[in-house]
Design a protein that fits this description.
With 81 residues, this protein is mainly α. Helix content is 65%, strand content 0%.
């Protein structure tokens, strides 16, 4: 199969391929494989499942994401007591 790619995309692919030390063909094949996997029903269902729990639970703390290391360290030290 042959495809025509505009010059800007071709240059970008050349740079990325060179940085990753792979051929443009390999780079394009990997990108297409990733696209196919992301479009699969199984992947889409896993994304839906993961997103279904977002915001569902309240933990009393509004800064958990910012201070998760501290909370994790506290939990670890409490579990060893």
């Amino acid at each position: 199969m042959q495809i025509k790619i505009n010059p800007e995309i071709d240059q970008a692919l050349q740079r990325i391929a060179q940085a990753k030390a792979v051929s443009v063909e390999t780079l394009v094949e990997e990108a297409l494989q990733q696209l196919i996997e992301c479009e699969s029903e199984d992947y889409q269902q896993r994304v839906k499942n993961a997103l279904s729990v977002v915001g569902r639970y309240r933990f009393g703390s509004t800064e958990l994401a910012e201070n998760h290391d501290s909370y994790f360290a506290d939990a670890c030290s409490n579990s060893q007591k």
